[in-house]
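User: Fold both of these, please.

Assistant: Here is the first one.
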Amino acid sequence: MLSVNTNMGAMIALQNLSKTNRDMETTQNRINTGLSVSSAKDNGGIYAIAQNMRGEVGALNAVGQSLNRSKSIVDVALAAGETISDLIVQMKEKALAAADASNDTTARLALNEDFVALRKQIASIVSNAAFSGVNIINNTTTKLEPLASASASKLTVLGENMSLGGSIITITATGQITTQAAASTMMGTINTSLTNVNRALARLGTSSKRLSLQEEFVTKLSDSLKGGIGNLVDADLAKESAQLQALQVKQQLGIQALSIANSSPSIITSLFR
């Protein structure tokens, strides 16, 4: 039936062209964003899952930063402790020389000056072994509790008080070796301090390694989650490119079909010539 009021062919052609245009818009959006699911309207279920996983990745980033900061604090403490151990070894040499009965008072006083300088250097190192304002070897921070997981579980790293006259370094802040007797007594104190410092270093080293392992695990877990998100929402650009070319052809054909359908009513005018 020919009618000037109703053109079913044009309606159908327009419907198909509109669908093709919508499909092209979707495909172009996937190409532009690189995502097949960029909003909830694309796929509500997948979008919700991906958003939850993105939240997990964000939380793991915070965990990684916490672990990295704590590891840096421990590593600074380790470096300071190793230097302190070396200084105590030098103090032992001075004390042993001062305990030698063949040395006179002048020699002992010279050795004592070196000994006191080394002792003061230990105090200075302990005081300045801080990272980001945190020092775990001067008894100001007794423990670290960095985040270990996205669920806010924590690791515990205990501090090591290496202050002079403490439980680890038993050499007092006023210790000297001016006499043979004082030097002989100091030898025992130094040996105890050296043993304690090396044990403390072993504990700090274990803590640093533990933090490194946890940080490595968190990084791998985060990478796995990112890969999972990509599997869910990333667009296959090769497929989308082929789809776009096909839709462009369909669009051109749709325009031609609509043009043909729109020309049909003009046939009616020939009936009234």
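And the second sequence with its predicted structure:
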Amino acid sequence: MVGRDRDKEQAWAARARCRGMDTEVFIPVAEVGPVRDGEVARAKAVCAECPVRELCLDWALVALPYGVAGGLDEQERAELRRDRGGWISERMRPTLAVPVGARDLPPRERGEVIAAGRQALSQGISRPRVAVEFGVSRRTVDRWAAGLHYGGVR
């Protein structure tokens, strides 16, 4: 999704119960054990009564690698992705504009591919997905992302 479509799809965040809360509530500090369990339970209690929980979960499945969102922690979201066979709600699946024939271009003629890949990254599409969709290695995607952070083409 780009521009207004992306804004429209993410307008749900303004109605979230966690709106305005400290984000640290949703990112457990402890890695394991009863402290982590308590931190996760507190975050899930906020999510439990949220009117946009399902939309948040759709977003988190695509865009959030850590923490609690949509009522699930990162392990639960990973399990849900596996159970769905990688399927993510079409409502939240970002679209990619992969140039036609991108995978077949010689490396020196892939400027359009690099620009499209960087655009996908700037839209919040995960690095692994960009690598698969554009037919490049994860290392290449990491270089594209570094270009975004160090003055590369946006």
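Residues 1-5 have pLDDT under 50 and may be disordered.
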